[in-house]
Write a structure and sequence with these properties.
This protein is mainly α. The protein is built from 9 helices and no strands. α3 (49-72) runs antiparallel to α8 and α8 packs antiparallel against α9. The longest helix has 54 residues, at 125-178.
């Protein structure tokens, strides 16, 4: 029970010191001559330079791509359930011409693959299957090319950041050399800080772009496997007839 009073004796002076220090700091910050720390976000944009603004533009493109992929890269978009049900019903009724018309009027991953298979009706099953799988590969490549832009941005953004940093350092040391080396440490630190801003921008863009690229890659693999299975099930009925 003696521990609690001892702790109070130790902590009470420490807390009092912290309170007094915080009060003094607040008073100093409120004085007219006190130096206020700049907002880091505003400060970063003010020192971004041309390369920094290019990285910002790249980040806007990356954001637009991510939103578009969230909306369109999923099985419900590659193979809309209502459309799949309609084409399955037409296959059951052996109304293949109408199924082809539906595929031509509503183009997506599923209908493009089915249309390719329907175009080979009357040939051997191996020919139909080959046409279906060829179109599956083509549509899958299109999806991987689309998400590949995120991979490109993830690789490009840090390189742009490094370019901005190296350029900024070159200009900073060029100014030091022109001044004959008589530059204050504050000026040197400010130049280096400005040069590092673009590296920060590049990493801020590259890290989420990389994460979303791998997420969408896995989504493409999962969605295409499911859609390809549905397409091949539709044409299995022609195996026995060949």
């Amino acid at each position: 029970m003696t521990l609690l009073p001892n702790m109070r004796k130790i902590l009470t002076p420490a807390l009092a010191t912290l309170v007094l220090a915080a009060f003094a700091s607040a008073q100093q910050g409120g004085q007219p001559g006190a130096t206020q720390a700049p907002n880091p976000v505003i400060d970063a944009f003010e020192n971004a330079g041309t390369v920094g603004y290019v990285i910002v533009a790249v980040s806007i493109v990356a954001l637009a791509l991510i939103i578009e992929m969230f909306i369109n890269i999923k099985r419900e978009k590659l193979a809309p359930p209502d459309l799949v049900s309609e084409i399955e019903s037409l296959f059951e009724e052996q109304n293949f011409q109408e199924a082809m018309d539906v595929c031509e009027n509503d183009r997506n991953y599923f209908t493009n693959v089915v249309h390719a298979g329907l175009g080979k009706l009357g040939f051997a099953f191996e020919t139909i299957q080959g046409s279906v799988r060829e179109m599956q590969e083509e549509e899958t490549v299109k999806l991987f090319q689309k998400i590949g832009y995120l991979s490109l941005i993830a690789a490009l953004a840090p390189m742009l950041g490094l370019l901005g940093t190296v350029t900024g350092m070159f200009q900073t040391f060029g100014a030091i050399a022109a001044a004959g080396g008589s530059v204050s440490p504050a000026t040197l630190a400010g130049g280096i800080k400005s040069a590092l801003v673009t590296t920060i921008f590049g990493l801020i863009v590259a890290i989420p772009a990389s994460a979303f690229f791998f997420m969408f890659r896995n989504r493409v693999i999962r969605a295409t496997i499911e859609t390809n299975a549905m397409c091949e099930m539709l044409f299995e009925r022609f195996r026995a007839k060949s």
